[in-house]
Amino acid sequence: MTSPKKPIPKLDYGIILSLMLLAIVSFITLYSAQSTGQYKANFVVSQAQWYVIGSIAIIFIIRFDSDQMKKISKYAYGFGMLLLVILLLLPVSKFTPIINGAKLWFVIPGVGQIQPSEFMKIATIMMLALVTSTHHERFLHKTIKTDFYLLIKISVIFGLPFMLTIIEDLGTSLVFVAIFLGIVFVSGITWKLLLPIFSFVTVIAGAAMYLAIWQRPFMEKFGVDPYQFKRIDSWLDPFSHRTDAGMQLVKSLLAIGSGQTSGKGFGSREVYMPESHSDFIFSTIGEEFGFVGGSIVISLFFMLIYQITKTGLDTKNPYYSYICVGVISLLTFHVFQNIGMTIQVLPITGIPLPFISYGGSSLLSNMIAMGIILSIRYHYKKYMFASEG
Question: How far, in Å, CA of 69 to CA of 65, rounded?
Fold first, then answer.
């Protein structure tokens, strides 16, 4: 005999637990990082404040259902594009300063620095999900023509913020590429279109890398700044550039390597690491907690990504599924790029480690993404049946 169906609890406590554990890791690591003499700010208190603001945002967002989220998508994307254009056009001032060589932030009195491109990532995910799901609802019978039409729409939505961010911030622009690729791969577009396009892009990227490493005079003829070559050299051979461009990477390798298996212990840092509270926070984790601590942190991210993947597979709403894919692409790229650059696997791009690195805009945008994922879990209905013998 089968008992009446019972609704599974709407809140995803697994995701909430993952966020709490990542927050604890962030607070512990930032407390150690801020002990370095160069820092005077209390990063832990500031990070906690942004976590509270992010939690409030989650509580607010979780109430929106699919139809409301779709309406918000258009406005969020349009407003985000407007902010990026304004930031690009405004002259350098105390409200739009150049920080670390780039003009990426609005400085709002009483609030602090706000980076529009961080929030634009989420708006782009929502808009790509909306356009892709709406396209499939409109064109029930797929052809190469309809697939090409969808690819053009996805490319335009991705291309606009990509072009506006690559001017000042290569790292963030690469995140848009990761989101674009994730959506395209699950969009149902035929591989007859995708294979030749991505093959062409791969060949171009490979040729550019070859020219940048072995044919630099040729590249300089086309106006490439020699400083860009120095950045490549400092990545491939950081110890030969340890006094300038390769200094951060050398320090990171020394810090993580000296941590060995179990680390030196909390607060027992010996290697001076610039930006140890933000982009290079994983170096602090590696030095103090070693391979074991680093593996635990990576496992927390895999657990979170697994939970988002499960949410995307369980929901029957295509719009929700595409959002999950976009968020997974965003988080996966951030984690691999950030950790990869600290161990010389990938070049340094200045991308933070989600939920752990210090930064209000980055943390709040990631919390908004989690609010959307929790909203998906909250609003879709799934039932389980209990059998009675």
Answer: 6
